[in-house]
Write a structure and sequence with these properties.
Elements: E1 2-10, E2 14-17, E3 26-34, E4 37-41, E5 47-63, H1 66-69, E6 78-88, E7 96-109, E8 117-134, E9 137-153, E10 159-160, H2 170-173, E11 175-184
Antiparallel strand pairs: 1-2, 1-3, 3-5, 4-5, 5-6, 6-7, 7-8, 8-9, 9-10, 9-11
Length: 192
C-alpha cells in the first residue's frame, strides 16, 4: 500500500493534519508499505506465521517558517523493516493454547539540518498463554523480553547520547515485559 499526504509541522517537529489554506510549516510525505505473510495451518488449530513488513516514508516537499527553526529542514526520511516468526499450538492441549513468537525490527531515520539521525534495533521473544474458561471467554497472558539498541548521530556525524536528546536509550527500555487480560467473543462478528 501507500499514501501521499500533507502534514503541518509545529515547534518540536510534531506532525499533525494540515490546516486548510495553510502554505507554511508543512511537509508533503509519500509512504509505501508492504507486509507479506506466509501462514501454514495444521490439524487442531496449530499454525505457523512468517511475516515481513517494510514501511518507508519519503519527504517530497517541506515549507518551514524561518522563525520556527531558522529555515532549516526538519522532517526526515525513514524506513522500518520487521520480521516475525510465530507458532501457535491451537487446541492440542484442550482449552489451553500457547503462542511462541520471535520478532526483529530495524528502524532508520535520516538526519536533517536540525535533528540527529536515529537507528533503532529491536529483538523480542515471547510466550503467550490463552486459557478458554467458557465457550466465548478466554484468559490471556504473555511474558517476553525486548532487547533494544537506540543510537543517534548528529548531522556532523558525531554520536549523540540519547539522554541529551530527551530520548530513552536501549538500556532504559530493554527488559522483560508481561500482560494479563481477558478476551470475550460473544459472536463471530464481535471480539472484546
Amino acid at each position: 500500500g501507500g499514501f501521499m499526504q500533507e502534514q503541518s509541522i509545529f515547534a518540536g517537529n510534531e506532525l499533525a493534519a494540515a490546516a486548510p489554506g495553510q502554505d507554511t510549516n508543512e511537509a508533503v510525505l509519500f509512504g509505501v508499505f508492504a507486509s507479506p505473510v506466509y501462514l501454514m495451518r495444521f490439524d487442531q488449530g496449530q499454525e505457523i506465521e512468517l511475516r515481513y513488513r517494510n514501511s518507508s516514508i519519503i519527504v517530497l516537499e517541506e515549507t518551514i517558517d524561518a522563525e520556527l527553526i531558522q529555515g532549516q529542514t526538519a522532517v526526515n526520511d525513514s524506513v522500518s523493516n520487521e520480521v516475525l516468526a510465530a507458532y501457535t499450538t491451537g487446541n492440542v492441549f484442550g482449552g489451553l493454547e500457547f503462542r511462541f513468537a520471535g520478532f526483529a525490527r530495524r528502524f532508520e531515520e535520516d538526519d536533517s539540518e536540525v535533528f540527529a539521525s536515529q537507528t533503532l534495533e529491536q529483538t523480542s521473544g515471547s510466550l503467550g498463554i490463552y486459557w478458554q474458561i467458557l465457550r466465548n471467554l478466554t484468559l490471556d497472558g504473555e511474558v517476553g523480553y525486548d532487547e533494544i539498541d537506540n543510537e543517534f548521530e548528529d548531522p556532523q556525524g558525531t554520536d549523540v547520547e540519547a539522554d541529551s536528546l530527551g530520548e530513552a536509550d536501549g538500556d532504559e527500555i530493554s527488559g522483560t515485559y508481561y500482560r494479563v487480560g481477558f478476551s470475550y467473543n460473544p459472536n463471530l462478528r464481535l471480539a472484546l
